[in-house]
Specification:
The structure is a single chain. This protein is α+β, with helices and mostly antiparallel strands. Helix content is 48%, strand content 17%. It contains 6 helices and 9 strands; from the N terminus they run ββαααβαββαββαββ. The strands form 3 sheets. A 5-stranded mixed β-sheet has the order 4-6-7-9-8, covered by helices on one side. Strands 1-2 form a two-stranded antiparallel sheet. A hairpin with a 5-residue loop joins strand 8 and strand 9. Helix 3 packs across helix 4 and helix 3 packs across helix 6. The termini are far apart. Bound molecules: adenosine-5'-diphosphate (ADP). The site of adenosine-5'-diphosphate has 22 residues, from helix 5 and helix 6.
Length: 311
């Protein structure tokens, strides 16, 4: 009896044999290595197998090397980004701190006798400390968002009143920059359920940007456009706008159009990315549109029927 269908030469000697005596005298179990398997382990088959193993080994070494190089490159970029971030943030904090110190020194030196000037300087100090708080909040929000620890407290808010109040509290900085504030709010209430601080932070980040990058444009528009699904707050300026190749990236963390050490305006590249993440977490969004005739439009979308927040 034979298993397998190889043709056996009756004269061939088995490669291994075992006698079954005394249970079955004259019977034996024999093994014949057939041509195909024996040639596989000899000659060409062996070379193919070795070649294959060698190729796999070389591919693994090359892939490992490439992965290590890529990882090292990423670590280097990360380290560079962290250094730039720390120096950018410090640089950004320095500006309001310098103003606060300067005006406080002026007031404490008894050199200002005009009550109007005193009021103005105090106003600058208050405004600049608000800005300082916002910058620190941006960094804190950034780390909370990165670690998924950001909490939102949704409450009913009338956007009309909210925007009016926010602009009243912060109009000094806009006025100082020489921008004419053009506000357009509809009649009646525009109710939403949103987190007051998060919306305020997002809106002020956009206004801060207009003051920083579009002061030459002469005007800053703040408009509220109610809609059936989303109410939109639009921030319009007549600044340089955002170059086409940067439009998709300005909302990415750390991205700045001018990230050179000699950048005219200090910044960390976090403002837009945080503002957009805050609004998206609350079911809304922030979009950019180029403005006809030059400048930028940033649109904050706030859902009318707020869904659950993401965190
Ligand atoms: P930062 O202002 O700290 O650099 P942002 O995330 O707020 O970071 O903004 C990212 C980049 O988008 C800015 O560096 C700037 O180049 C560009 N940008 C933002 N707002 C405006 C604007 N109103 N006009 C022109 N460019 C802007």
């Amino acid at each position: 009896h034979q298993t397998g269908d190889s043709q056996l030469d009756p004269a061939a000697r088995p490669d291994a044999a075992l006698s079954l005596a005394p249970y079955l005298p004259h019977w034996q179990v024999a093994v014949y290595l057939t041509g195909s398997s024996s040639t596989f382990f000899s000659g060409r088959g062996f070379i193919i197998l070795t070649g294959l193993l060698l190729t796999i080994f070389l591919a693994a070494v090359l892939l490992g090397g490439a992965l290590l190089t890529w990882q090292a490159h990423r670590n280097m970029l990360d380290a560079r980004r962290k250094t730039t971030f720390v120096s950018n943030v410090s640089h950004e904090l320095k500006t309001p701190l310098t103003s606060i110190r300067m005006y406080a020194e002026l007031l404490s030196g008894d050199r200002v006798n005009d009550p109007e000037k005193t009021r103005k300087y105090l106003g600058v100090i208050v405004e600049e400390s608000h800005r300082l708080t916002r910058l620190v909040n941006n960094v804190l929000d950034f780390s909370r968002l990165e670690q998924g620890r950001k909490n939102y407290h949704l409450e009913p808010i009338d956007l009309n009143g909210f925007i009016r109040e926010l602009l009243e509290n912060h109009n000094l900085r806009v006025a100082e920059s020489g921008l004419a504030l053009l506000v357009s709010l509809p009649e009646g209430q525009a109710l939403v359920r949103t987190d007051r601080d998060a919306l305020g932070q997002a809106l002020l980040n956009l206004i801060d940007n207009a003051v920083k990058y579009a002061a030459d444009g002469g005007e800053l528009g703040v408009e509220l456009q109610p809609g059936p699904e989303y109410h939109e707050i639009r921030i319009l300026d007549r600044g340089p706008g955002v170059p086409v190749e940067h439009r998709a990236r300005i909302f990415k963390k750390f991205h700045r159009v001018d990230d050179s050490l000699t950048a005219r305006q200090p910044g960390s590249g976090l403002g837009l990315s945080i503002a957009q993440r805050l609004m998206r977490d609350m079911g809304g969004d922030i979009l950019f549109e180029p403005r006809r005739g030059g400048g930028s439009i940033f649109i904050i979308k706030i859902p009318v029927n707020s869904r659950k927040t993401r965190s």
